[in-house]
Write a structure and sequence with these properties.
Blueprint lengths: L12 H7 L5 H10 L4 H9 L15 H17 L4 E2 L1 H7 L15 H15 L3 E6 L30 E8 L2 H4 L5 H27 L4 E4 L8 H7 L3 E3 L5 E3 L6 E8 L13 H8 L1 H5 L11 E3 L2 E3 L4 H11 L5 H5 L8 H12 L1 H15 L20
Antiparallel strand pairs: 1-4, 2-3, 3-7, 4-7, 5-6, 8-9
Helix pairs in contact: 4-8, 5-8, 6-8, 10-15, 14-15
This protein binds iron/sulfur cluster (2 copies).
């Protein structure tokens, strides 16, 4: 629609909370020179313990579930230092040394894409696609500091490597439908761990094949993943700001690996999401913090989309101590991947009438208002079902 400016990672709410320590040079620079209007709201959030507040607060901090969340988030933390890889790093740190004279291994791009996607799925991804990268989807400056590398804060993020493999992992429906209670955030944590494993293994595969790679997961991002996933044909953006995929709807988490291995890109898909969202509004009506717009899409930084109020959304996370997930759970596209739902999704791709009628059908069957369902027994918190 218009010119797009690269997003600054220093503005990411988690980066602000984690990397801006009161009294530090980063804190002074950000709140005095860049975004003075954010200082008060961030200070309040920091006092509450960060964007997630007191983990699991909505379920009385039920410790088994909170411990599942915390322990699975440790996996990306452990793998983060291995996100940027090339043949030299693979040769230096691998058990089986890559032989430099064999680098890089030449493959036909079609064949390379088939191998990479197949390997990603085998490693544990549920969806995989390939795209050419677009520098506009890369962050402009580094803002997240996880490993004491403070010299990186505020440094420009380089242009991306030319290709990306984008992967999605499925959030299980029986966990997501408990949103905003702790089983849904347990599922998020598990998926972040899974994505970190898949992308780290895949990045190392590229390195051993003689190429550069960057694993993008919860402890290392260079890009905005939703637009990258659209380019890789994994789905379309919904009103709630999540990517909606064909098989799992919005019940997914996204990850990516950038590489300079020549690959054959996939094409964006048309699932009929835009027309459906125009009539549906279910996420906007169910959002406990009223953060999802009810009107038309608007131009935001050069692209036409529904713009979430992230600040009020994160304030709600801070209250409940989970990542909420209500909008992901209530979305009609997030229904279980059963034959009947597959038929509905196929019909939506072809019929405008279906896009008008199905929002009402979904309300009739599943109800218009969101109510959390009972969790699986093993993750049941004491108050569940009361
Ligand atoms: S709940 Fe409805 S309006 Fe919201 S993203 Fe899903 S389909 Fe679109
Ligand atoms: S995560 Fe929750 S609070 Fe945030 S937009 Fe979705 S429903 Fe609203």
């Amino acid at each position: 629609v218009g010119p797009v400016a690269r997003f600054d990672e220093r503005d990411v709410v988690f980066a602000r909370n984690r990397s801006l320590r009161p009294g530090s040079r980063e804190y002074e620079h950000y709140y005095k020179e860049m975004r003075p209007e954010k200082e008060a709201v961030d200070a309040r959030r920091r006092e509450r313990g960060g964007p997630l507040g007191k983990p699991g607060a909505i379920d009385g901090g039920y410790r088994p579930n909170v411990a599942m969340l915390i322990s699975s988030f440790e996996v990306p933390n452990i793998l983060g230092p291995h996100a940027k890889l090339g043949p030299a790093q693979a040769a230096a740190s691998g058990t089986y040394k890559a032989r430099p004279e064999e680098n890089p291994q030449q493959l036909d791009p079609e064949r390379a894409s088939a191998i990479v996607k197949g390997w990603a799925l085998r490693l544990g991804a549920d969806l995989a696609g390939v795209c050419r990268t677009n520098a506009l989807w890369s962050y402009s400056h580094r803002g997240e500091i996880h490993y004491g590398n403070w010299e990186d804060w505020g440094q420009p993020v380089p242009d991306p490597l030319p290709y990306a493999v984008v992967i999605a992992t499925e959030m299980r429906e029986d966990m997501v439908r408990t949103a905003p209670h702790t089983p849904s955030v347990v599922e998020s944590g598990y998926n972040y761990a899974r994505g970190a494993f898949v992308t780290t293994a895949l990045a190392r595969w590229f390195a051993v094949m003689g190429y550069q790679a960057r694993a993008e997961h919860n402890r290392y991002y260079e890009s905005l993943l939703p637009p990258l996933a659209v380019d890789a044909g994994l789905g379309e953006m919904g009103r709630h700001g999540y990517l909606i995929s064909d098989k799992f709807g919005a019940r997914i988490r996204l990850f990516a690996v950038q590489t300079d291995m020549p690959l054959a890109p996939d094409k964006p898909v048309d699932l009929g999401v835009e027309a459906f969202c125009e009539r549906c509004l279910k996420c906007a009506e169910s959002c406990p913090s009223r953060s999802i717009p009810r009107g038309e899409r608007t131009e935001v930084n050069g692209t036409l989309r529904w713009k979430l109020n992230e600040e009020t959304c994160f304030d709600f996370w801070g209250k409940v101590g989970t990542d909420c997930c209500v909008c992901m759970a209530v979305c009609p596209f997030s229904r279980p991947n059963r034959p009947i739902h597959r038929i509905v999704r196929r019909t939506l791709q072809r019929s405008n009438l279906a896009r008008t009628v199905f929002p009402h059908v979904d309300n009739f069957i599943y109800g218009r208002k969101w109510r959390p369902r009972k969790p699986p027994e093993w993750v049941q918190y004491p108050q569940a079902g009361r």
